[in-house]
Amino acid sequence: MKTKNPRRDPEAVSFSQARDEMFSHILRCGVIDALPEHQKEWFDDTMLYLADRYEDLSKEELDQLRVLGERFSQPVQRKAETATTGAA
Q1: Which 3 state secondary structure label does DSSP give 57?
Q2: Helix-strand-coil percent breakdown of the chain, rounded to 5?
Q3: Number of domains in the chain
Q4: Distance of alpha carbon 58 from alpha carbon 54, whole angstroms
Q5: What is this structure's pTM?
Q6: For residue 61, is it within any domain?
Q7: How far apart are CA 36 and CA 47, in angstroms?
Q8: How far apart are CA 26 and CA 20, in angstroms?
Q9: Of 52, 53, 72, 73, which one has the greatest count of Cβ atoms within 10 A?
Q10: H-helix or E-strand spanning residue 27
């Protein structure tokens, strides 16, 4: 049984292109620094745009894109430094 080559599968290519386009828009539009309610509004509008632009993506794939975008838009959370470094 052959597995699909993701580079040749049109749906995988569309998903990758949509993801990359969405990440690019997030960075250009300042979504990362926006308030949560503005982020939600931005994602609502952007997902409608992506659904129109990439008609071959399923609802599940569009939902996955939104989750990826929302995670990408979250501020970086740094781990607390351990007390073992330099403590005497």
Answers
A1: coil
A2: 60, 0, 40
A3: 1
A4: 9
A5: 0.72
A6: yes
A7: 16
A8: 10
A9: 73
A10: helix 10-29
Residue 60 φ/ψ region, left for φ over 0, alpha for ψ in the -120 to 50 degree band, beta for the rest: alpha
**Could you tell me the two tokens for 69?**
């975008």
In a domain, 39, yes or no: yes
Cβ contacts of residue 6 below 8 Å, gap of 6+? 12, 13, 16
Residue for token pair 């052959």 = 2
For residue 4, tell me if it sits in a domain: no
Structural domain boundaries enclosing 58: 34-73
Q: Please indicate whether residue 75 or residue 24 has the higher confidence score (pLDDT).
A: 24
Assigned domain for 27 exists: no
Six-digit token pair at 32? 């990362």
Tokens for 24, please give them: 């690019």
The one-letter amino acid code at 5 reads N
Quick: pLDDT tens for 33-75: 899 999 999 999 999 999 999 999 999 999 999 999 999 998 7
